[in-house]
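FORM 7B: Structural annotation worksheet

SECTION A. Query
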Amino acid sequence: MKQHQHILVSLGSAPKQGPGSLIIIDRHLKRLPSSWQISIVAPEESFADTNMPDSWQLLSIPMRRWWWPPYRRQIPRLLETRFLCWQMECEKIFLRERPTAIVTVLHDIYSVFAAYLSKIWQVPLSVIVHDQEELWAKSELEYHWIKRNWQAVLNQATRVWTVSSELANTYNIMDTSKASILLPIPEGRQQKFVEWKDRFKTSPVVAYAGSIYPSQVSSFFRIASLLEKINGTLLLVTPLNRPGIPDLINNCPNIEHRELFATNVEVINFLAEKASCILVPYPLDLAEHPWAATCFPSKLVEFSHLGLPAIILAPLDTALGNWAIRHKWDSYLTKMDEEMLLQILYELTEKEKWTKMANQCQRVSQGEFNPELIQSQFESELAVSSKINGLVKQSIN
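SECTION B. Predicted structure
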């Protein structure tokens, strides 16, 4: 049999543009050398309205077939039976050939299925971990199900990529030969960095792109109020139909609103034209938003490639806060300190200080946030089988 590399990605939704992990996987796969065969396992309905290369092999998994036994994920035997049905769907396409690498994002039942396939087929598993999904559990039962199964996935994995060391510590992933930090790969930008413009002196524009939690609305109101003192504008690229957003916009005349764009490239180009600074705010109440302690914002990685200053707002003892401290970030605030924030906003209107802050973003965009470096790490650390054999049917323990 001819040797080749074949990556199978198991996800709860097909890779696509937008927020979250799906676009990260999409970027990694599209950057793989053409010698790689790429297969995607995902629910069949998730492939609608997606734009994936014709060369990718799509394994559409139906929710059910009439002859399949009932499925309850909380009942191990029923879950294993459903996984066997899904495995057979995959093997209809693969025949007796198997992939050389399996990749998943620790997020849903398809992560557990990836671990199942890895064990049955004896194919190395690589797992990307961006968040603590158990923190969004709707019940105690769901919380314990996630914790138990996530640990099984991580135990099965040959490679675990967490987005921060804090997240790795939370899951007790201490084996340095198995675990490493993989930052969310950005789109990257071929154009020159945004340069200083004279209008920044008299009318600075601080921009935020992404969703806003209700608990953050008051912070955005205070930021807009401070910007008003220096004739500044708060530019929000965010959904209007979220709690508190219409009131925020109606009560702050210096807020300019734009709905989300279809693609990240459009957002980046829009900010390059409009903004003089990027805002990266995390929720300040970790009791209400405990996930903020361990995750890392892809928007900082993404928008650093504009070369604009970035104001970071994040509590101490968080992955983002620790990162900002290590980098001695000039425009980092640990809390909503209006006096300190106003001082930073004033500095954005001075070319020399603006340039100093902008240089920080430019340096990290060319260093640890460089998409070529992140992709190189992904490819070099990807767990890949050294042998390609026929499928061997085994029973799961």
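SECTION C. Observations
The CA atoms of residues 325 and 333 lie 10 Å apart. The first strand starts at residue 5 and ends at 10.

SECTION D. Sign-off
Analyst initials: ____
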